Amino acid sequence: MAITQQTSPELQEAQQYVNEVYETVKKRNPGESEFHQAVKEILDSLTPVFAKNPKYRNNAILERIVEPERLITFRVPWVDDQGKVQVNRGFRVQFNSAIGPYKGGLRFHPSVNASIIKFLGFEQIFKNSLTGQPIGGGKGGSDFDPKGKSDNEVMKFTQSFMTELSKYIGPDTDVPAGDIGVGAREIGYMFGQYKRLRGGNEAGVLTGKGLTYGGSLTRTEATGYGLVYFTAEMLKTKGESFNGKTVVVSGSGNVSIYAIEKAQELGAKIVACSDSNGYVYDKNGINLATVKRLKEVERKRIKEYVTEHPTAEYFEGCENIWSIPCDIALPCATQNEINEASAKKLVANGVKFVAEGANMPSTLEAIDVYLSNNVYFGPAKAANAGGVAVSALEMAQNSARLAWTFEEVDAKLQTIMKNIYNNSVNAAAEYGHAGNLVVGSNIAGFLKVADTMVAHGVV
Ligand code: NDP
Fold first, then answer.
1. SS3 96
2. Would you state the pLDDT for residue 215?
3. Which of 154, 334, 363 to mutate to test the pocket of ligand 1 (most atoms within 8 A of CB)?
4. For residue 229, which of 90, 257, 322, 456 sits 20 to 30 Å off, Cα-Cα?
5. For position 172, which CATH number holds?
6. Residue 331 has pLDDT above 80, yes or no
7. Is the pLDDT of residue 399 over 90?
8. Same domain, 330 and 315
9. What is the DSSP string of 137-156?
10. How does pLDDT run across 55-92, given as a tens digit for each residue?
11. Which part of the chain is the Glutamate/phenylalanine/leucine/valine/L-tryptophan dehydrogenase C-terminal domain (predicted)?
12. Which of 318, 346, 374 is the last residue of a domain?
């Protein structure tokens, strides 16, 4: 990604160093394209930091930070409703614990492999640092596909998954949460199994819990709301607001639903959302109550939306959602859902703001398109950090054995998102890339972890 334009000898030397580390990452992790992509995005942004501060290079911070502290893979056997034995693969990457216990969600999706878990875990280090909370970076999941499985099968699988995972996690060591395919139901089953295996009631071992057993108010809404709070700051910088804007949101899961809810509350018109089969376009504005019922209660496909709203249209396939004209695009489904061609369509149709609810939804080429066309771009690790930030607040409430009100948590979330935005803006300006939130958030997230690693010595 052409973020930095090298001029001084220090910058050129730093770029060469960063390239060498990147080449080692590629060699050591062959075929892991998502992981390479995530590392490349961050490393390119950090060049000005290495040019200015030799201590990070002298302490081999970069060489250490790209190597997970550990990657655990395990067999997950379970018995389906037909009595047949099924086998999935489980993962947990404990990437970096410099500033706190490993923290990051669990993803259940057939595409899950070591590359995807490592890209997500790597990103999580910097995202968690940006929140200002004391949490390290981790991620996990399985290639299990919850779609089409009965409740009983989901329970059997999650119990087997937790039986192995429980050996490696704990409230002060590693605290998983949800991600794609892991919501309140799955967290409930996993917490039940952990409690059964370990005894006692270690509430802080998982976040995203139900409200009856230690969950935090606002956690369900946090990533989507946080994304909108962050985007509202971006809009404010340009003298704008959500009011009256046309917005396209991809996905119709946890992040999408609450992004839509908050953006609508702020006066925006959301004209499209999607699932992995296709997207709906509703020129009158998406009816969120219908989406919530279809997706959260009935677990149906987004296609059903048009039977209740006949003026809306359904289109098979996800890619063309980005050809719908909008002022603001909020990709909230999955990685690499906007490629260069889609980004060009967005630009041609007048998009002014793109902020990422999903993790790495834009390819490196798509990001180049935004940056070179004056689209104000909010990268995932800053824009979607609200979820993990409130997870950290859930851990704090569990430790204190307290429960804060919705308003208290929401107010803290708003402050955190504002701070992330301001810190990213300031870091970008300080390192010579004013207005570039990719560079700013990567640097701001990196510095806190790097300084801590220097302080801890070579461990
Ligand atoms: P959900 O499982 O609740 O929803 C995911 C949505 O994206 C669904 O609509 C799903 O459609 C769609 N989707 C999933 N995979 C694909 C795919 N390969 N192609 C097209 N659409 C797809 O997940 P979340 O809302 O929790 O997560 C969405 C994104 O946000 C992920 O990138 C996640 O890592 C990120 N994120 C989530 C956080 C959270 O707190 N939940 C925190 C920070 C980031 P379908 O139903 O058909 O599968």
1. strand
2. 98
3. 334
4. 322
5. 3.40.50.10860
6. yes
7. yes
8. yes
9. EEEEEES---TT--HHHHHH
10. 999 999 999 999 999 999 999 999 999 999 999 999 99
11. 216-457
12. 374
